[in-house]
Amino acid sequence: MIKVFKYFIITFILSYFVVWVSDHPGTVKISWSEYLIETNIVGLFFIFLISFLVIFFILKTFSSVKRLPSFISNTRREKNFLQGNQTLDEIAIDLFKGDLDNLEKNSRKINKYFGNKLFSTFMLINASLLKNDFTQAKKYLQILATLPRADYIFKRVKVLIALKENDLKNAENCLLEYCNEYKGDEWFSEKLAIIHSYKGEWKLAFDSLNKASIKKNSNLKHMLANLKVLSGSKAVDAMKISDDSIFVLQESVKEFIDASEIKKAANLIQKNWEKIQYVGIIEIYMEFKIKNNSDSLNRYKIISRLLRKEKKLTDETKLALAYSAYQAQVWGESQAHLDSIETKNWDERVIKLYKKVEEKSSKVTMPNNENKVLSEPRWICSNCNYKYGKWQFVCDECSAVNQINWSKKNSAIKIKSAFISQNPFRHFPHMK
């Protein structure tokens, strides 16, 4: 109500003013350079109004012309931003598909659209390395050296090129320098440890990796534990670094047995059995420094009691019990454990053990198995899928370090992976 009243008052005043001006137009004379302009107050008002509109139009036009370069620049920037985002999407697809040619083209576009030389140069270097084009990679490396904030990436790429060219001496010298410059850096420390491992310099490899901050990196902790044992330290101490290594675990079992602590050795196996599922460690437990049949029987009683605590016995557990019973010369129990494994799950190890038990006892006869016998499980390099009969630290096939795992281990081994995540050791030369 108040607003309506207010508008009414304003309209009344304006109307009164217009009517009053119309009734009293008056006369306005303007003398300018021999010209006499006569008009009334209304005409003068229209003159001022037209003059204002003309000036406003001129200023508006001038302002628009002045902003034209900025408008064109912003339009171009928005277009580059959209095309740059599309290019980044294409780079992500190229990485997963392994399309190196498109990856190189799209990397150049990033520099064009965003003016970002660091990212585009890095991607171009990576594409060159993957294609083993070292000459091109070195050209891009020179560009990288001139860019601000690229020092760390430059040094990592320099090491990678040396490794790809099989120049291990140069790579080692660079890594020694960079490890001192970037103390605690995981990447430089790991690569230096790998080079020392190639040469069997376990102590130097351990010392290099031990300087890195790897508290949250389970893979490097696993590697460090293995190196600690390989360098001559006690396996029991290495278990404090990581208890996920079968190699460290079996060496710890040997140390306990060597100290006549049979129960501790058995408890260590039982504690880790669910995740390792490795019959080979039972073989070590039952055979290492065995004294006599009484000692074998005692070890069998201890380990069988502990392994039977599992809620559901796996085939590996049954085979482990069968093997330990065989070593203790308890033929009937060995046969019972073997028979508890479904014939469709029999592998070559079951057949071999059954034949050994059959040879030792005339009461044991291996049943006929119409199913196809599975191959014996092997140690597998998770990097190249090469198979081994025994664990080793360095893969002879692809030079991967600390990547050979037991195939029956509960923690799944990723054999095949996408291009972006596959072969973390692809920049390293093959072992000679």
Short description:
The chain is mainly alpha-helical and about 425 residues long. It contains 18 helices and five strands. Among the domains are: about 130 residues, Alpha Horseshoe (Serine Threonine Protein Phosphatase 5, Tetratricopeptide repeat), CATH 1.25.40; about 55 residues, no CATH class.
Distance between the termini: 97 Å
Major β-sheet profile: 3 strands, antiparallel
Question: Which CATH architecture of the domain at 245-376 is right?
Answer: Alpha Horseshoe
Structural class category: mainly alpha
Q: Into which percent range does the helicity of residues fall?
A: 55-70%
Produce the secondary structure layout:
Elements: H1 2-23, E1 28-32, E2 35-39, H2 41-97, H3 100-114, H4 117-130, H5 134-145, H6 151-164, H7 168-181, H8 186-198, H9 202-210, H10 218-230, H11 235-238, H12 246-258, H13 262-276, H14 279-287, H15 293-307, H16 315-327, H17 331-339, H18 348-360, E3 379-381, E4 387-388, E5 404-406
Antiparallel strand pairs: 1-2, 3-4, 3-5
Helix pairs in contact: 2-3, 3-4, 4-5, 4-6, 5-6, 6-7, 7-8, 8-9, 9-10, 12-13, 13-15, 14-16, 15-16, 16-17, 16-18, 17-18
